[in-house]
Amino acid sequence: MKRFHRQFLLGSFLLLLASTGAVMAHRRWSRALPDYGYLTGWVLLGAIILLAVYNARKKLPFLPLGSSESWLQIHIYAGFFTVVLFLIHLNFRVPTGWFEGTLAWLYLLVTGSGVAGLILSRVLPRRLATRGGEVIYERIPALRHSLRQEAEALALGGEMKSPAIAEFYARQLSGFLAGPGNFWPHLLESRRPLNAIMTELEEFRRYLNESERATLEKLRDIVRRKDGLDYHHALQRTLKLWLFVHLPLTYSLMMFSLLHVVLVFAFSAGTR
Amino acid sequence: MPPTPPIVERPQRWDAAFDPAMTDADVDRLLAIAPFSRMSPDNFPKRTPLREILRHDTSIRRYRKGEIIVRQGDYGTSAFLILNGATRVVLKPDLPLSLLGRQAPGKKGIFRTLAQLWSPLRPPESFSRARLRQDRGVGARENENNEVRVFLQDLPRVLDKHRTEEMTAGDVFGEIAALSRMPRTSTIFGSSDTAELLEIRWQGLRDLMRSDDQLRQHINRVYRERALASYLRATPLFRHLTKEQLAQVAEQIEFATYGDYDWSGEYKRLAQAGSVRPEKEPVIVQEGDYPNGVVLVRAGFARVSRKFGSGERTLNYIGAGQFFGLNEIAHNFQKPQQPVDSQYTLRAIGYTHLLIVPTRVMEQSVLPSLPRNELPPPISPAKETFEVLPGADPDSARERIGAETLEFLTTNRFFNGTATMVIDLDRCTRCDDCVRACASTHDNNPRFLRHGPSSGRMMIANACMHCADPVCMIGCPTGAIHRESFAGQVVINPVTCIGCKACANNCPYDAIRMVDIRDERGEFMLGEDLKPISKATKCDLCVENHGGPACQRACPHGALERMNLNDLDALTDWMNR
After folding, report:
1. pLDDT at residue B294 tops 90
2. Which residue from A252, B49, B330, B352 lies 20 to 30 Å from B479 (Cα-Cα)?
3. Cβ-defined contact of B552 to A67 (cutoff 8 Å)
4. b/e map of A246-266 (b: 16 or more CB within 10 Å)?
5. Residue A21, Cα to own-chain centre: how many angstroms?
6. Are A61 and B436 in contact (CB < 8 Å)?
7. A5 touches B at CB < 8 Å
8. How far apart are CA B175 and CA B205, in angstroms?
């Protein structure tokens, strides 16, 4: 069996076991223990802190704290387990009041963004590898700039300058080459924008003589390369940005959770 | 009219002399000295006459008292003949590491590791002056030819503390390391006021050996005595032989070298031009020829290929310790009535040093000693045809990894890496956690680039691969670049690195970078000539850190692995994990 499959099966089995155990324990002790709500709250908070500690591990790569891969596996399965703990803590009811509601929403958003990140991190790298033309994200603007310069030299400069190509370039291509484009189509794996430009290039071809057609072929190649850069830009940007959603939400959740603990203890005298 | 192709003079063997300063008078003088005086010029081919070998492949060098000539553990391309004066070889144990220009191996202590938590951010590539202070036991100076010479400051003390042996005029040393591409086994320094030595580069030594029986026999004898017996004892193929049988086999083994010792420069040029072609590599064994013997790779690498269409398809590559041709010889031994020829072609990649056990010796001594279950099975005609087809033999590593990937690894010579940074692009989220981890571990200085050539979903990042054949270590004048242990990581001691770029220029993979260093305030450090002081930097595989390479441990998706690419099974298992 492949390592990743074995890892998945083991993690899923442990998650199922822990979840079943937690639900059974809930059924048995939810009414029997007097401070049951406190107990589930502390366990849930502990689990959330464990999840958050992963980010600290990433900041300390020089310490022998185990591999980040193992930490992420724990982070993922423990993250799913907190859903069960969360429902148990809520006693399987919809939270009431604005504070509880906000806390619950924050939890759902953190979990949702985590799941989204997990899916993105499994799907997008494969798509990038399949597309090829691997490029470092930070280098994309420089590469785009050099493509634009190459295209301008072909269309607007040189001895072989063609007014028709120059006009076509200014009208159809300069905007496309100016900056990153087609973020959503690339993310959704749509080739419609590229096909549209290619069709225009093809239709424009019949107005050109032999040497102009050679220039157009070079421009077509530049358009393809620019599209490849845009593809990498869109997907790599998404892979980087989701963390900027997940992390601030996590910090907000931690703040609200701590406040929740303070409020519970401040106003719990009557319920004890 | 078609354009006329540019016609240039074809490069010749002696276009670049080893020492352009060699004169006719020098050559005449050498021809009057043993062993050259007894060599017959008639024995040398017209293309490589003795006189021209001495003129183009040798250099007369003078070392002052205490100057280190060769250093234990270094890789060298030449042998030395003492012409005048005396040198001393340091017997085991060798000089301390600091005198050899190296850093002491060891991990960071717990406090130094934890101190990184609160250490302030330092300027890039910064060093404290205290850290750069060298061992006062050695000094460096330039000779009249602007060559850097490292010398032992307190020679009497070294002689007092270490066992040494004198070598005088007529003695030769360094020939085995030069020919077999093995690290130097001892340190040798000048012990008379001036020692005059003839340095012979390996090409010249090889040609001298080819044409002079006495020299060849001498070097072969030294090789057999010093290096071969222990190597054969450790080779599984010979483990059933008695001591006497092993001695007989050793006596009849032939040595061969193929390719170019300084292959990295030529390879870099071809790679940049995109014209690396397997068909241009020197043939060691040709498919379809009679199998003359089992070929053992002692150093370097060789490509196993087979005819396919109009070219050759790479089926495997073999490195030090691996052998070729056993299957055919075992088949002919077991089925003499149905003999087979060599099934594959073997070509040298870069530089390859080989031991060849002749077929006769194999049949008389080695094969009869092997238990029947250890003999390779006879080659079946059906399998012979089957194996050339793509996708055949699905369990073998080379079939699982695919012909294109194998070609990619071989053409780019990545098999050389013992700790190559392999990235699985299907899993890599391009998060750069590996780069950040590397920077954090090296005082905010990343030591690799998360980018490089790729084939399919495999990328080989631009990081030091800690090569099995570390060409970067050839020519370091101070010993700053060295292996941390025997066959261990290749590291650079910043204290003794003089920024000469020899290692960076030699590295075929551009994995060594030169950086201008700064002090703790971020100011560039300048030498007496007011030019910035440069140091060579590269991945050190986090040799000082606990837990292994930080880049690999930092990857959240298990997409990065430091791998020995000479182990195809491990690579295949990892890619199909």
Report:
1. yes
2. B352
3. yes
4. beebbeebbebbeebeeeeee
5. 32
6. yes
7. no
8. 8
H/E element, B254? strand B254-259
CA distance B486 to B468: 11
Chain A residue whose CA is closest to B550: A61
pLDDT, one tens digit per residue, over B452-478 is 999 989 999 999 999 988 888 887 888
Q: Which residues are bridge partners to B81 per DSSP?
A: B172, B198
Any idea where the domains of chain B sit in the sequence?
A: 24-109+140-209, 235-389, 403-575
Q: Could you say which DSSP state residue B542 is in? A: T
What pLDDT, on a 0 to 100 scale, did the predictor assign at position B395?
A: 57
In angstroms and rounded to an integer, the radius of gyration of the C-alpha atoms of chain A is 27
SS3 call for B428 = coil
pTM for this prediction = 0.81
Helix H or strand E segment including B68? strand B68-70
Specify the amino acid at residue A244.
F
Q: Which runs of E-coded beta strand occur in B359-477? A: 420-424, 454-455, 458-460
B24-109+140-209 and B235-389: same fold? yes
Nearest by CB to residue B428, choosing from A62, A66, A125, is: A125
Q: Are strands B293-308 and B323-324 parallel, antiparallel or unpaired?
A: antiparallel
Our CA-based measurement puts residue B418 at a distance from the nearest CA of chain A, in whole angstroms, of: 21
- Matching CATH number, B24-109+140-209, of 3.60.20.40, 3.30.70.20, 2.60.120.10, 3.40.50.1820: 2.60.120.10
Q: How far apart are CA A242 and CA A251, in angstroms?
A: 15
Instruction: Report how far residue A259's alpha carbon sits from residue A102's, in angstroms, rounded to the nearest whole number.
Output: 12
> Which residue from B308, B485, B310, B314 is spatially nearest to B389, judged by alpha carbons?
B308
User: Cα(B170)–Cα(B538) distance, rounded to whole angstroms?
Assistant: 41
What does pLDDT average to over chain B? 85
**What was the ipTM of the complex prediction?**
0.87
- Distant-in-sequence, close-in-space partners of B495: CB < 8 Å, separation ≥ 6: B103, B131, B132, B133, B134, B480
With bands split at pLDDT 50, 70 and 90, how would you rate the model's confidence at A140? very high
Q: Which fold has domain B403-575?
A: Alpha-Beta Plaits (3.30.70)
Distance CA B448, CA B470 (A): 18
pLDDT of residue B386: 37
Assigned CATH class of B235-389: mainly beta
Judge contact between B550 and B432, C-beta under 8 A. no
